[in-house]
Amino acid sequence: MRSVCIHSSERLNLDAFLHELDVPVRFEFEGYDEERSYYYFSRPGISTTLFVIAEGPDEYEVMIDGFASYSDYKFFPYLADCLCQHLNHESLVIPESAGRTAYRVYDESWIEDSIGEEVAMLKSALSVFPRYYVGFPLEGVGYNFLRLAGTIWS
């Protein structure tokens, strides 16, 4: 998971923000824990994974899965910068990188390095995996997906 934090005490108006992005985005679902709210969305026909915005007290975190596509990685700094502009009315500057903008930090070199790291981790995991026996469980595990799905997609 790749992420960037944005500090702001403003409340996120998700509908207005997604409209301001000026690109087709589909809101998928939201979730909560004790500390934060999570908003999951994708770009129809383009995204291979979901984008996540976590809203906490005075802080937002924009996240993307490590196994995202190249076009998803390219969208990541745009998404983070737009969220910062929506909340703080200024471009996102990354303090840990000598004050460079999100576009300078999360550039093509960063994309290539990130995808390379994910492929290397996957390769190392797959090289160990065949050594272990993998089989089906003797008893299935039941869960009530239909009731949960009804609450998400209704």
Give structural attributes.
154 residues, alpha+beta, 5-stranded antiparallel sheet, two-stranded antiparallel sheet, 5 helices, 7 strands, 23% strand
Q: Could you explain how this protein is built, in words?
A:
With 154 residues, this protein is an alpha+beta fold. The protein is built from five helices and seven strands; from the N terminus they run E-H-E-E-E-E-H-E-E-H-H-H. The strands form two sheets. It has a five-stranded antiparallel β-sheet, covered by helices on one side. Strands 6-7 form a two-stranded antiparallel ribbon. The longest helix has 21 residues, at 108-128. The radius of gyration is 18 Å and the shape is globular.
**What structural category characterises the helix and strand content?**
alpha+beta
The proportion of strand residues reads 15-25%
* Number of H- or I-type helical stretches: 5
* Shape designation: globular
pLDDT < 50 runs, ≥5 residues: none
Q: What is the percent of helical residues?
A: 25-40%
Largest sheet: 5 strands, antiparallel
What is the mean predicted local confidence, pLDDT? Answer: 85
Indicate the radius of gyration in whole angstroms: 18 Å
Widest sheet: strand ordering:
1-5-4-3-2
What string, H for helix and E for strand, traces the elements in order? EHEEEEHEEHHH
Q: Could you give the count of β-strands?
A: 7
Head-to-tail CA distance between termini: 29 Å
Question: What layout of secondary structure does this protein have?
Answer:
Layout: E1 2-7, H1 14-20, E2 26-32, E3 37-42, E4 51-56, E5 59-64, H2 70-88, E6 93-94, E7 100-101, H3 102-105, H4 108-128, H5 145-152
Antiparallel strand pairs: 1-5, 2-3, 3-4, 4-5, 6-7
